[in-house]
Amino acid sequence: MRESEPIPAPRFIGARVKRVEDPRFLRGEADYLDDLRFAGGLHLVFVRSPHAHARVTRVDCRPALEAPGVEAVLTAADVAHLAPKPIALCPAGFRVLPRTPLAGDVVRYVGQPVAAVVADDLYRASDAAELVQVDYEPLPAAIGPERALEPGAPLVHPALGSNVAFEQGWTFGDVDAAFRRAARVVGGHFVHPRLAAAPIETRGCAAQYDGTQLTAWISTQMPHLVRNDLAVVFGLPEQHVRVVAPEVGGGFGCKVGLYDDEIVTAAAAVRLRRPVKWVETRSENFVATVHGRGQRHDAELAVADDGIFLALRVSGIADLGAYVETYGASPGLLTGRLITGAYRIPAACFTVRGVYTHMTPTGSYRGAGRPEATYLIERLADAAAAELHIDPVEIRRRNLIRPEDFPYRVPSGLTYDTGRYAFTLDRALALVGYKQCRAMQAAARREGRLIGLGVATFVETAGSGPSRLVDFARWEYGAVRVNPDGGVVVLTGVSPHGQGQETTFAQIVAEELGIELEHVTVLHGDTAVVPIGYGTGGSRGTAVGGTAVYLATRKVKTKVCEIAAHLLEAAPEDLVIADGRFHVRGTPARTIDFREVARAAYRGAQLPPGMEPGLEASSAWDPPNFTVPFGAYIAVVEITPDTGVVHLLRFVGVDDVGNVLSPLLLEGQLQGGIAQGLSQALREEMVYDDAGQCLTRTFMDYALPRADTYRHFELDTTVTPTPINPLGAKGVGEAGAVGAPAAVMNAVCDALQPLGVRDLEMPASPANVWAAIRRASHP
């Protein structure tokens, strides 16, 4: 097409297209891991440690081996020959020891697998697992990172000499000088409790081995990464390992790597030469699947007398749990990337120590470091506003990065791409009616009611890009193949598990090729079908994976136009494409449709001279930087002082994620992320006692939100495209979870301010809020 040809209005991009995935889910036709059945298949059940720290003195498998239907019982000796699984992220100076997939002489957290029973029936395997006799000698445990750092604390790994796994940090500008000249210094101790990702589908694995090929079906977000790691562990060429991710019922970051349970399941299949399946129970999930968050920070903000932020100082510890999982070190490091948030802060420093504890390992969870960073700076912004008697909105306005500042390099070394932070904040203020809300609050306080307003402006990183502290795999693979009948198959290394990329990627392809959405099929999650890929995590699906698909589609479109031009005896630049048909400019009656071009692509005689038959292309997109979505959230709460219950009256959110490909999916991602962020702030916490026993192992104890927990969210968007990718899209999967905790905790603390409560640790549960009120009234 000529440059002067009018660009047709988008048909699919930006439209509220229904998810193409949904019919199979609604009809019950989708197959999750536990739906898979194998002829001659066996079932595996784990024997797990009941102790946080103990010496294993005896494991007697004989009673279990004699039980009906039992084929094998595996212990540490049976998997000791396997190579250690790779750790994807190892910062400089990282102190980590290899471990066997089943505990040997020592167990280091409640839930660590000690043995595995394999039987011909799940119930027989469960019964036999109870017959495995394990003798333990309990040892002192280090529960919580603060206690693990105390002098004389029990060592999780004595060979390391301490419980510190790593210490990393950076400094930018003259921080000390800025603090010396500050009019005010505000600070605090900020806690992010451990959280359970609690996906609706727990983890699981099924494996079979034929002597050459190992195939594993795993509920995972990253099948290619798992394939690569399994090849290392079992010493097999990658082409002899196939990993399939069936339908995955949620992940939220907890399914990004290879777990010991999955290694043991594969090892059982290799040993027995029969299919073996393991599916995690819900109570196992609470102690055997990585937890999120688990960070503590001490932070100080230096402020001038006019409210301008001068410098920020942050020191933190990250609870790693007993072992480091695939990305276990990443959240603590990623926090440092965004501690200055959406503000111009000329000097800052950050340090973090990763600490081993006798608790379940931690890992990625929706946001992974960004909610922690946002919470720090937003709580400090409110503290500075209170100290200087400046409205919380006004102090933010004075410090926000301005549109003319972009691209903007922050002290951590990250460069923000684009932003209109004040514009988005203004939209949120107008939507909530900020002045009216403050007036309502004042009237309510005169009546003795505890009403609070909380504001949070936030940024987050999405997609992939270079980082001074963390270097993730950045690229993603996409391929597009047009079949002779005109149907289009898309291959992607992204492995969606609820995000809706089958829809968004079909929208991209259908838009570019001028065909209908139903003619596009998106394939993913099978390493035998999609040769390479990275997977899903870090809000990278559309910004990175979608760009790879877009670039592959553009290559196919170029060839399509060349073939169509040849058939129409015209130059490609003279073609007009509309509604799946091609005609030469000025002669609309002479047309051919997309299917005719597709057929011609596989008939050499109809192709331009020298052109190869076929119509497919692939692309690997390696973005030059992260994209930086942003937003402004406002929460309005009321607290019942007699019970400590926090009632969410309103929640207003305005997000900017660049160009929006699917408004319907955008809204769904935001609502889900906000719900998780609010629950982190108000409800959720993994609780351990002093002996290391997890006290929140069921949904009776762990307070997940219900459908009626929150009111309707009032959401809006602004659009500031990014130049980082040709789609102009930034990513949205984690934004809600990044901004919501800070907004609602600011609101809770604002509500409690008349009682003299200046701060409160998350979660703001009824018990915690009531206790804070009691302390304030009875000092």
Walk me through what this model shows.
By secondary structure, the chain is α+β, with helices and mostly antiparallel strands. The chain has 3 domains: 22-30 and 475-621, Aldehyde Oxidoreductase, domain 4; 33-139 and 202-248 and 255-288, Aldehyde Oxidoreductase, domain 3; 373-466 and 625-777, Aldehyde Oxidoreductase, domain 4, CATH 3.30.365.10. The chain is 28% helix and 24% strand. The protein is built from 20 helices and 28 strands. A 7-stranded mixed sheet has the order 3-5-1-12-9-10-11. Strands 7-15-14-13-8 form a 5-stranded mixed sheet. Strands 18-26-27-28 form a 4-stranded mixed sheet, with helices on both faces. α15 runs parallel beside α16. The longest helix has 27 residues, at 541-567. The chain starts with 21 loop residues before the first helix and ends with a helix. Mean pLDDT is 95; it is low at 1-5 and 468-472.
* Strand line-up across the major sheet: 3-5-1-12-9-10-11
Name given to the CATH homologous superfamily of the largest domain: Aldehyde oxidase/xanthine dehydrogenase, molybdopterin binding domain
Distance between the termini: 76 Å
Assembly status: single chain
- Give the name of the CATH architecture of the largest domain: 2-Layer Sandwich
**Could you report the average pLDDT, rounded to the nearest whole number?**
95
Q: What's the number of domains?
A: 3
CATH class of the largest domain: Alpha Beta
What low-confidence regions span 5 or more consecutive residues with pLDDT below 50?
1-5, 468-472
- Biggest sheet descriptor: 7 strands, mixed
Number of strands: 28
Q: Under CATH, the topology of the largest domain is which?
A: Aldehyde Oxidoreductase, domain 4
Radius of gyration: 28 Å
